[in-house]
Amino acid sequence: MSQYSSKWLKVSEPSPHVLHIELARAPVNAFCTEFWVAYGKLFDALTEDGYDVRAAVVSSVFPKIFTAGLDLKDASAIGENGSETTLDSARASLQTRNRLLAFQKAIGAPERAPFPVIAAVHGYVIGLGVDLIGICDIRYAAANSSFAIKEVDIGLAPDIGSLAFLPKITGNHSLVRELTYTARYFSAAEAEKLGLVSKVVQGGRDEVVKEALELAKFIATKSPVAVSGSKHLITHSRDHSVAQNLEYTGAWNAAALMTNDIRDQLVATAKKEKAKFPALSVQTKLPKL
C-alpha cells in the first residue's frame, strides 16, 4: 500500500479488501492545506484506480489525539494568503469561497467513495475532526474520546461539514446547537447520546481500532454491489424525500439486480460456504477530464 501512503497519511491493508488509514502529522494531526489536500486525493485515487477496497477505517497514529483540527499557524488553510491583500473585497471573497469549497470537497471525499468508511476515534477530536468524522459512514469512539465543535472559539461558524451533517445524522437539534454555540468539550458517552457515534468502546486507541477493523473485515465479506449500492441509496435518502428516494431506488436496483452476486450468495448459502465476490470495478486508471 506504499503507493497510497504519503507524508502524513499511513495506509495499510490489515486484511483482504480492508484499508487502515492513519492520520500521522505530528504532534497533534493539525490540518494544514497540504494535509487536507492529500486526504481528499487519497480517497479519490482509490476510487479512480479501481483498487478493490470494500471497507476502510480512519484513525490516528497518536493514542491521545485523533486531531486538533485546523492548523491555525497555516494562514493559507483558512484562506488568508498574501495575494488576497491586492484584491478588492468581492474578488477576495470569491477566492476565499473557492478555497473553502475545495476544503469541503477534500474532507467530503469519504462520502464519494463507493466503500464504507469507519471513523475510529480516540483522545481529542476537535473542530475539523468533528467535520471529518461526520462525513464517514460509521463512527466508533474510544471511551477516552473528548469532542469539541471548536470554531466559535476562534470567531467563525463551522464551515467544512459539521453544520451540514450533524442536524441530519444526529437526533437532538437542541444539543447540536448547544455544543456549537458554546464550543464546550463533550464526552464519548454524550456523543453516543447525541447519535454522533454508534458505539463507545472501553479503552483507548488500540481497542477502538481493533473493533473498527473487525467491523470492516465483516463488511468486506458482503457483496460489494450490495454494500456500495446501499451506501449510495442511504445518502440519497438523507438528502431527498421518501417518495423521491423510493423512485430513485427503483431505477438504481433495476440495474443492480442484474448482478451475479445474488446467485453467488445463494449458491454459497446452499453449500454452507462463504461467498466470494469479484471486485466492484476493474483496476484500471480512468482518463482525467
From TrEMBL:
<dbReference type="GO" id="GO:0006635">
    <property type="term" value="P:fatty acid beta-oxidation"/>
</dbReference>
<keyword id="KW-0276">Fatty acid metabolism</keyword>
<dbReference type="InterPro" id="IPR014748">
    <property type="entry name" value="Enoyl-CoA_hydra_C"/>
</dbReference>
<comment type="pathway">
    <text>Lipid metabolism; fatty acid beta-oxidation.</text>
</comment>
<dbReference type="Pfam" id="PF00378">
    <property type="entry name" value="ECH_1"/>
</dbReference>
<keyword id="KW-0443">Lipid metabolism</keyword>
<dbReference type="GO" id="GO:0051750">
    <property type="term" value="F:delta(3,5)-delta(2,4)-dienoyl-CoA isomerase activity"/>
</dbReference>
<dbReference type="InterPro" id="IPR029045">
    <property type="entry name" value="ClpP/crotonase-like_dom_sf"/>
</dbReference>
<keyword id="KW-0413">Isomerase</keyword>
<dbReference type="GO" id="GO:0005739">
    <property type="term" value="C:mitochondrion"/>
</dbReference>
<dbReference type="InterPro" id="IPR045002">
    <property type="entry name" value="Ech1-like"/>
</dbReference>
<dbReference type="InterPro" id="IPR001753">
    <property type="entry name" value="Enoyl-CoA_hydra/iso"/>
</dbReference>
<comment type="similarity">
    <text>Belongs to the enoyl-CoA hydratase/isomerase family.</text>
</comment>
<protein>
    <recommendedName>
        <fullName>Enoyl-CoA hydratase</fullName>
    </recommendedName>
</protein>
